[in-house]
Amino acid sequence: MARRVTSHDVAALAGVSRSAVSLVLNGRAEGVISAENQAAVRAAAKELGYRPNGIARSLRNAATHTIGVITDSIASGTYGGAMISGATDVAARKGYLLLAIDSHQDRELEVEAVDMLRARQCDALLFAAEGLHSWQPPESFLAEKCLLLNAFDPQGRVAGVVGDEEVGGRRATELLLEAGHRRITYLTGTDEVIANGRRITGHREAIERSGAHSTLVPCGWEIDAGLETGTRVLDVAEPPTAIMCANDRVAAGVFLAAARLGLRIPEDLSVVGYDDDPNVAPQLGLSTVLLPHRAMGERAASLLLEALDGKELPTGEIPVDSPMVRRESVAAPRS
């Protein structure tokens, strides 16, 4: 059986002391170990396949190098997983693991999950929501270094990393305005979804500044809603030249409606979606706003890791940019 590689082996190969290896691999080398020796240690560790002893390190530091995550439905669903993968990757680079429990949107289970993760001595706690909403953290959650992801505390006791939905709504609208559209219909989502209201706010801001005309039509979130509502708003004497959609699935329904009515996209009608759904938007050539789930997860994990290093956590909502993804579904309106 091959002998386990130790920090002594890394130190010998790198030509440094064992304490230097410890400082470098535990992220405490800045200002103490030269950049050249830091690089030598990392190269030696990689060559030898060395991994620090996590249990021994935890005993020395009184830390478990785990972040406890409570999700409402992400862990058992198909939406929002990029938030968890983003957080996992950032944490792993610092030697941390994520331990996740799904509450299935059950408040009692959320509280129990917090208690279970605290009992396992997690160094920090993160609550991650599938869809943006308010969340009342229990006192036990607030007792640890903690953060919300795609959620916000209505009392402002803990910070929340969220996508910048207002900016996203404004950017989608501006893309159509820049192309020359002045008769725009916005197929909105449902009122109980907080993100819907924020996107509408961004949309209205862009419209008011431009002097263009916009009609908001309640629709929903699914393809069939986009097909039905899209057909209704397009099959009129003077239809809009552009449609902004609540999400990419609604946009797919609008594509179907346009095809049934003999309208070409983007020659006769421009369409913009929201989410950059990988199963919809690229296939349609749909211009859309990226819902930055992965970047949100990365930001949340980075903030928690910084807090564990002694930096104070911010307060309030921490917005993450929602960029525009330009494809082929937007063009200038026909003259």
Automatic annotation (TrEMBL):
MF (Gene Ontology): DNA-binding transcription factor activity; transcription cis-regulatory region binding
Annotated InterPro entries: HTH_LacI, LacI/GalR-like_sensor, Lambda_DNA-bd_dom_sf, Peripla_BP_I
Alphabetized Gene3D superfamilies for the sequence: 3.40.50.2300, lambda repressor-like DNA-binding domains (1.10.260.40)
Superkingdom classification of source: Bacteria
Domain (HTH lacI-type): residue spans on this chain: 5-61
Alphabetized UniProt keyword annotations: DNA-binding, Repressor, Transcription, Transcription regulation
Matching SUPFAM superfamilies: lambda repressor-like DNA-binding domains (SSF47413), Periplasmic binding protein-like I (SSF53822)
Native source species: Luteococcus japonicus
Entry protein name: LacI family transcriptional regulator
